[in-house]
Structure formats: C-alpha cells, structure tokens
Amino acid sequence: MRPIQRRFSLGLGIWLCLSLGLCSLWASPSLAQSLAQSLNQSSPSPVPTESQEPQEPESTEEEVITPTEVSASEAPPPVDDTTQSNPFNSPFSQQNFVPDISLILDLSGGLRNLSNGGFEALQSPLKLQGLSSGHGHSLNAHNGFNLNYAELTLQAPADPFFDVFATFHLSPSEFEIEEAYFASRGLPGNFQVKAGKFLSHFGRINNQHAHFWNFNQLPMVYADFLGGEALNEIGAQISWLAPTDFFLNLGLEVLQGSNAESFGTAGFSVGDQQLKAVELPNLAVAYAKTSVDLTDDLVLLGGLSYAQGGTRQSGSAEAATDAHVHQLAPTPIGAFAGGSRLLGADLSLRWLIDSYRELSWQSEFLHRSLDGSRYDATGRVPLAKEQSGLYSELVWRFDWQWRTGLRLDLVTRNDSWENAQLKPGATLLPRYTAMLEYHPSEFSRLRLEYNYDLTRFADGVQTPVQSVFLNLNLAMGAHGAHQF
Amino acid sequence: MQLKLFKAALWSPLLALALLSASSAFCAPAWAKVEVVTTYPYIAELVKEVGKDKVQVSALARGDWDPHFVVARPSLIAKLRKAELLVINGAQLEIGWLPPLLRQANNAKVQPGQPGFLELSNSVQLIQKPQNVSRAQGDVHPQGNPHFITDPHLVPPLAKSVAEKLCQLEPGDCSDFRSNQAQFNQRWQAKLQGWDAQLKKLKGKKVLEYHRLHDYLIQRYGLILVGTVEPLPGIPPSPAHTAETVTRAKKAGVSLNLRGVYNPEPPSRFVSEKSGIPLITLPHDVGAVPEAKDLFSLFDTLVSRLSR
C-alpha cells in the first residue's frame, strides 16, 4: 500500500511540474514572439562588422608595434575577404558548430600515515555501513602519485530552447557520465527546467565540481551522508527566480534516488524476506537560496535545503551482528529499508577586498533522520538514526596568485535507536584541513594540503589520519566561468 | 506520518511557485521605463546618454576593478532577471564571469541572439585579432583586443548602435533616441577636437604598458608600444622579467609607462623607479578614478593624465 501511495504522489508531482512548464509556454505570447523573432533573425548583430585588416600575430616581446596612421575621421580600408575563395574550405564543414570543450586534469603526489590498504579499511561513524571508502570518487586515494581525474565537459545550446551540458569523469579505470542534462533557455516567468543526470542543487557545495572546491576532499558530512559523488542523480528540476530586488531562488527536484548512502531503490532478500526494487522516482529535493550585498564589498549567501526519499541498503547481515571493540565505534547497518530526511543549512560570507583579494567564509550544516527496519535472518528490527555534522571553511586570497585556507569538519550528533533503545555514537569528532595554493595562471593551480582527520576508526578504534598532498589542477580548452 | 511529510514536501513548494508566478505576471506596469543592464559602467553612461528618461540603467561590474574578473555575485543575477536589454562590451571581455550569470538569470529576453541582447564589439573594428590562439600565449582574446573604449573616436559608433537597439525595442520612442544620440554626438565631436589636439602632441612617443589595455588609444594617436610589463596577457611578471623590462625600456627610449587602475602597481612602479620613466595610471572605465564620473570626464581625465 505504502509504495503505491508514494508512487501516486510522485506521479502527481511530475505531472504538475510538466503541466506548469507547458502551460506557461502556451500562455505566453511574448515568448512565442521572441522565438519567432529569433528564428527570423539568423544574425543578431545589428551592425555588420567590416572585414578585418591584414592580421598581425600577437607581437612578441622583442617586437616594436608600429604605429598605424589612422586619421581621426577615416576608417581603415576594407580588405577582400579571402575565405570565400579558399579551395580547402569544405562546403559541408561544421567546424564552427563545435561545442565548448574543456578538459580539467587533476594530479597529485603525497603521503599518508597509513598504508593504502589501511586507509581503504577505515570506518566512518556517520556512514550506514561504517566503511569510509566505497562508492564515489576519491581524491588522493593512494600514497605516492595519483591521477585523480580528467574531467571532460561539453556544452552548447542545442537550439533556441535548450542548453545541453555533459561532463565525463575519467579516472584510470573508469569512464563515467558525471552529468548529462539539458536546461531550458527561454521559459517565461523566470522559470528554468533542467533534466537528465545532474548534481542536485541541494546545499551550497553539492552542485560544484571537484575542481571548484576550496579543498581537495568533499566535506565529511556530504561524503558520509551522500557518498563521494554527493547527490548526483537522474531526474528533473524546476527552479524559479523570485521577482525581488535581491536574489531569491526556489527549486524543486524529483529524482530517481539511487544514491549509495542515504537514498536507494535496490531490492534485496534476507533469509525468506524479500523486498522488491523501487522502480519510480524515490527522492524529492526542495531548496531556497538567497543572497544580499551587505555592502558593496560584502556579499552574503544563505540557503536551506531539504531532501526526502526512500532508503535501501543491502549490506550483509553477518556484518551487522559483528561484535565491536569500541563502544562508540561505527556499526554496519546491514540490510535496511526505510526512509531518510536530510536537512541542509548553508551560509557564506565573502568580503571582496579588490579585484584580486578576498576573504571568504563558508559553512554548511547537515542533519539526517533515518527511520526504517533492519533486516536479518531472524526478522526485522525497527531502527532509527539522528545524525548531524558541519563544515566551516575560511579562505583568504591575499594575492592574484595565492590563496590559503583552513577547514573544520565536525560530527555533532550520531544517535541510533534499535528497537527504541538509544545507542549514542561518537560525536564532536573533528577533521582539520589546511591548504596553500599558487596559481601560475588562471588555468593552472598548485595546492599543498595538510589533513588531520580524527573522525575515522580502524577495527573499532579511533585512528588519526594525517596526510600531505600536492595537487596540480590544469584546465584546457573552453574558458570556464564559475558561479558564485 | 512519513508519507504525509513526503506529500507535503512535494506539494507545498509547487503551490508556492505557482501562486508567486501568477502574482508576478500581473504586476508589470505598462508605462515602465526600459530596464537596461550593462556589463560595465561606461556602457551604462552610453545608454543613459541615448535613452535619457526613457530607460532605467544599471551596470553589473565596478569601474575600478579588473573587467576580466568580476565576481559573479548573486545580486547580479537578480539584476539580469528583470532586464529587458543587456548591453555588453563583447570580444570575450566578459567570458570569465557573464555566461553563468546569464544562464541562472532565467530571463529569455536577454539571451544572446534575442532582441534584448547587444554586443558593442560588433560595431567597432577590433585590432590584434590573433591568427592562431594558444593559451601558451597567455589568456589571449581570440576575437581581438576587447579594450576599444580607450579610443574616444570609437564612442560615437557605440552610441549609434545603442540608439538602433533601443529603437528596435521601443519603436515609439525612436525619434527621441535618435535626437539624443545626435546631440550626444555633437557634444562629443566638440570635445574630441580638444582631446585630439592634446594627444596628437604625443605622436611618435614610445610607451610601455602593463596589459594591452590602451592599444586602441596608442594606435589612434600614433604612439609606439615597446612592450608590456606583464610577460603575456594575464600572466604576472617575475622579478627577472621586470628587470629585463627596465633595460629594454631604457634602451628603446620609452617616455611613458602606462598602467590601468586595477593592474598590480609594484612591478610598474619598480620599472618607473629604476628607469626614471614617469608612471601614468589611466582610467579604463567610468568610475575607475573618482574624477571619471561620466564618459566626458573619463576622457578629460585620461587626456589630462597623459599630457601632464
């Protein structure tokens, strides 16, 4: 009964999203008009550019740029356009339609106080199955050299109605479609629809790609509640910009919900109990983001996000009954079915000192409520969790080419109830990160990062993890422009 | 319990969205001025000159900061959301900051290719268009040098294209826009004679600049560019390169060392101190220095600083 009702409500939600979009398209004569205009005007530039002067290559340092005599009122004489008669120009060449392509490469070298095997076996107190590694991308995973990723991005408008984006995450053994989605270009009423596989706009950092983060690792709350790829799902989003003088963005996402950590759709069987897979969208996200310029140089950005969906975990039942050494150590949840609610609050403050210097402070708090049943061979046991954590980072760009920053990750709550019996987990566990960056140009970045992590356990015993890595991040191709 | 919450989570934002959008659709007054957003302050001044009381203009960037790197603060998205016309410098000067703002603005009217979008670089002839581009040459602009606003002779064609665009959007007020533009042009030509007279005295002088920010001015008035303090566009100079620039400037007999207000001062100052060549900081936009309050005072300041 329950899954049927859920399907019904989700179906209604999708229907409403679609009908809202279609109705507004239908009802807007201005859009139709502007579309018609755009179709009629294949070249939008009002004044045709005259043909170029004989082109001079960028002069080198040794060259002296010769003065060109241009009298005050006279324009330079036009020169014949030679491309018309070029026999090598194919009449069917589509070179000019190549989308914007960029490739971002991230390499690193460094050391950790644990062996690669020891690092992989670490346990995390917030994670449902306890294991710290697992699904998702991990940066600086090994001692020594790492090729963390090469991220290939293509983007272009498909037509006047859709922008298309695709990001492929390439690592030495994987080719993955990290994102592939369209976004509407011309919806009236300040709406935008986005659908495909995309990084959810939940929270502040969730929809940023790894190369844009201020530190190498995803904040612990994201990695532990949502996995190394954060909330990256297949689904649809509708967002709206409020007609206010300040920035106010509201959005709603309906997603398939096959996240490795908090949300899942997979079926499983334990003993003679069987759970079917959920085959319809299983996760809804709502968010509100707002920003005001407190002064000309001081910008505040805040957001509230909420995600709710079904949870499935199909861990082994034996692991769940393992005796553990430390009372506060992470315990694997085993096979589990239920639901999760995730609440996020974020606040960023950026003080723009001048064109090249700024001080920025960014913090996010995430809370997870998990409720459902753990399945084992003997039956099912009611299980609930209330967990929360935060990260707070301070980054100072003190020069055109230099940045430095500190981050604190903290587990603030970790309570479990099994059969309504409270089992507190370890809390106030911190992770400290410090970094120093040097940017040879806008397109390259060297980052030296030190990480001291007190949130991890090995065989039930809290184990401090320290690491030092030097990362090199390079961007080639199309000029990336970043959001705030 | 769980299910009810889930349903509520789905329905309430959708309902709120529907209500709010309905209310916003009926609130736009018909007599409102044309809402124009420009990327840089000089363009806002241009639009004010042509549109006068028929337009409401605001600029996204500050005039005293680097035009290549503008922080994409969300308040700029809020400005773009309600714009009916967006006027940009173009030639990829905005490539590093405008595209994501425009994508997030959810405003169909001002997207490239729509009638509410104007790129000023289309109405001037760009110089220094490289035949081949590679980032090994630094952060080059593939369409040519985008800093055409440093040449006062290029302002009238820009005003003309703004007037044509406003006419296209508001045909009813077209005669006003045309007469405003004609008046502006007259005042500009009058000032231009004075500026030309001053700047023509600089013809043949050798100059150094930090970034290739003043090349249109340099070309217009026959100055000779010996080199830039930055080794390549967007690459800050090393001490060794700066020292080399001093030697080269002395050998070539450079008489002016130019820098934009936002260019890092230490390397240019070092070159001037070591070589004795006067350092001249020039405004590149309205608001770059306090005296540059509008387009006229921008060039008054520029000319007076150059002929000092």
Can you describe this structure?
The complex is a heterodimer of chains A (484) and B (308). Chain A has 484 residues and is mostly beta strands. Chain A has a domain at 2-18 and 109-141 and 202-477: Porin (Beta Barrel), CATH 2.40.160. Helix content of chain A is 11%, strand content 47%. Chain A is built from 5 helices and 21 strands. In chain A, the strands form 3 sheets. A 16-stranded antiparallel β-barrel of chain A has the order 1-2-3-4-5-6-7-10-11-12-13-14-15-17-18-21. A two-stranded antiparallel ribbon of chain A has the order 8-9. A two-stranded antiparallel ribbon of chain A has the order 19-20. In chain A, a hairpin with a 2-residue loop joins β17 (429-441) and β18. The radius of gyration of chain A is 26 Å and the shape is globular. The two termini of chain A are 44 Å apart. Chain B is α/β, with parallel strands linked by helices and 308 residues long. Chain B has 2 domains: 34-194, Nitrogenase molybdenum iron protein domain (Rossmann fold); 196-306, Nitrogenase molybdenum iron protein domain (Rossmann fold, 3-Layer(aba) Sandwich). In chain B, the strands form 2 sheets. Chain B has a 4-stranded parallel sheet, with helices on one face. In chain B, α2 links the parallel β1 (34-38) and β2 (55-59). Chain B is globular. Chain B starts with a helix and ends with a helix. The model of chain B is unreliable at 22-30 (pLDDT under 50). At the A-B interface, α1, α2, β6, β7 and β10 of A face α1, α3, α4, β4 and α5 of B.
- Corresponding CATH superfamily of the largest domain in chain B: Nitrogenase molybdenum iron protein domain
CATH class identity of the largest domain in chain B: Alpha Beta
Instruction: Report strand % of chain B.
Output: 5-15%
What structural class do the secondary elements of chain B suggest?
alpha/beta
CATH-defined topology of the domain at 2-18 and 109-141 and 202-477 in chain A: Porin
Radius of gyration of chain B: 23 Å
Order of secondary-structure elements of chain B: HEHEHEHEHHEHEHEHEH
Query: Helical content of chain A, roughly?
Result: 10-25%
Strand order of the largest sheet of chain A: 1-2-3-4-5-6-7-10-11-12-13-14-15-17-18-21
Query: Which strand order do you get reading across the main beta sheet of chain B?
Result: 2-1-3-4
Question: What shape does the CA trace of chain A take?
Answer: globular
Mean pLDDT of chain B, to the nearest integer, reads 90
Q: How far is the N terminus from the C terminus of chain A?
A: 44 Å
Number of strands of chain A: 21
Question: Into which percentage range does the β-strand content of chain A fall?
Answer: over 45%
The CATH architecture of the domain at 2-18 and 109-141 and 202-477 in chain A = Beta Barrel
